[in-house]
Design goal:
Helix 4 packs across helix 5. This protein has two domains: 149 residues, SPOUT methyltransferase, trefoil knot domain (Alpha/beta knot), CATH 3.40.1280; 70 residues, tRNA(m1g37)methyltransferase, domain 2 (Trp Operon Repressor, Chain A). It contains nine helices and nine strands. It is α/β, with parallel strands linked by helices. The structure holds S-adenosylmethionine. It is found in: Cytoplasm. One of its GO terms (molecular function) is tRNA (guanine(37)-N1)-methyltransferase activity. This is tRNA (guanine-N(1)-)-methyltransferase.
Length: 241
Amino acid sequence: MIFDVLTLFPEMFECVLSHSILKRAVEKGKLKVNLINIRDFSKDKHKRVDDYPYGGGPGMVMMPQPLFDAIEFVKSQGNIPVYYLSPKGKIFTQEMARELSKMERIALLCGHYEGIDERVYAVIDGEISIGDFILTGGELAAMVVIDAVTRLIDGVLSHPQSALEESFSDYLLEYPQYTRPEVFRGMRVPEVLLSGNHAEIARWRRQKSLEITLLKRPDLLKKANLTEEDKKFLREKGYEI
Ligand SMILES: C[S@@+](CC[C@H](N)C(=O)[O-])C[C@H]1O[C@@H](n2cnc3c(N)ncnc32)[C@H](O)[C@@H]1O
C-alpha cells in the first residue's frame, strides 16, 4: 500500500518508519510512504506557507496555494483520495483502519498552526480525527493511521491471527495474556492456559474477552457479534441483553 503524506515536517516520519513492524513492511515492499514537503510547493519568495487569519484572532493559517499545488501534484499521479487529519474529522476506529487497508494508495494531509484555509476542502476527500483532543500538527495522527492500517495489510504481520484476535477486531477487547514464568511474585498464570486443552483455552479466552469488555467498554457490546452462549454468559454477569 502507498501513503502519500503531505506535511511541513517530513523528517518526523523517519523514526517510526525505521523501526519494528513498519520498517519490516517497508522492507517487504508491503508499505511505501512518499513524504511530500508542502513547503516545496510554495510560490512565495520566502517559501512561506502560512499567513494571518482574515478577521483577526490568534495563530496562523495554512495558505491555500501551496496546499492546492501539493494536492494537485498527488492527484496527477492517479485517483488518490486525500484525507485531511483534523480534529473535526470522523473518529478513526479499527473498522476505518480495515476499510483503508483495502485501498492501494491514499494521501494524508497534515495540518499545522490553526489549520488549513477553508477553501482547501474543495480538493480533499475526507477528514480523519484520531480523537477528541487537539494535537500540534497532523503528523502524529498520520503516523497513527499508517501504523494501524499497515498491520492489517496481508503479509505484514508474521502471525495474521493476532490482527483477528486483537481488541476491537470483533468489537470485543482482547483476553488477558501471560508469558513465562508460571508464577511471578506469587501471582499464578491461570491453570487453564497450562492445560493444553485448546477448546477449554478458547472458551476461557472468549469469556474473559466478554467480561473485560463488559467491565471496561460496555458500549462496544452493542455492536459485537454475540453467540447465544455469549449472551447467556453476559446475562449471568448482570448484562441486560
Ligand atoms: C493545532 S491543530 C488546529 C486545530 C484547529 N484550530 C481547530 O480548533 O480545529 C493543528 C493541526 O493538527 C492536526 N490535528 C489536531 N488535532 C487532531 C486530531 N485530534 N486528529 C487529527 N489531526 C489533528 C490537524 O491537522 C490540524 O490542522
